[in-house]
Amino acid sequence: MPDGPALQTHMVAENNRLASRSVWDGTIAGTGRAGDFTTLDFFRVEDGLIVEHWESVDWVRAYQAFGLLPDDIRDI
């Protein structure tokens, strides 16, 4: 999605942990379709460096944005 950087909508930190919610919004280069999807990122920091990172992606919504799933499919 070259025209749509992620917008961080939420961020919270406590001790050495950080959580972030981002919404990706833009046009998919291969299909020309505009769409959006959400990611959640979790980080653990030690000595000022990120030492662990976990990410959760709303793949159903992402695949809809990419045109790989129909828009009317429902999450189960």
Q: What report would you give on this structure?
A:
With 76 residues, the chain is mainly β. The chain has one domain (6-66): Nuclear Transport Factor 2, Chain: A (Roll), CATH 3.10.450.50. 11% of the residues lie in helices and 55% in strands. The protein has one helix at 59-66; strands spanning 6-14, 17-27, 34-46, 49-57. The chain has a four-stranded antiparallel sheet. Strand 3 (34-46) and strand 4 (49-57) form a beta hairpin. It starts with 5 loop residues before the first strand and ends in a 10-residue tail after the last helix. The model has no long low-confidence stretch (mean pLDDT 88).
What is this structure's SSE topology?
Elements: E1 6-14, E2 17-27, E3 34-46, E4 49-57, H1 59-66
Antiparallel strand pairs: 1-2, 2-3, 3-4
InterPro entries: Cyclase_SnoaL-like, NTF2-like_dom_sf
Organism: Kitasatospora acidiphila
Protein name: Ester cyclase
Keywords:
4 strands, mainly beta, Nuclear Transport Factor 2, Chain: A, 76 residues
Question: What class would the helix/strand composition place it in?
Answer: mainly beta
Please name the CATH architecture.
Answer: Roll
Going across the biggest sheet, name each strand in turn: 1-2-3-4
The description of the largest β-sheet is: 4 strands, antiparallel
Residue ranges: pLDDT <50 for 5 or more in a row?
none
Tally of structural domains: 1
Classify the beta-strand content into a percent band.
over 45%
Tell me the total number of β-strands: 4
For this structure, what is the CATH class? Answer: Alpha Beta
Distance between the terminal alpha carbons, to the nearest Å? 27 Å
Question: What overall form do the CA principal axes indicate?
Answer: elongated
- Evaluate the radius of gyration: 15 Å
The CATH topology comes to: Nuclear Transport Factor 2, Chain: A
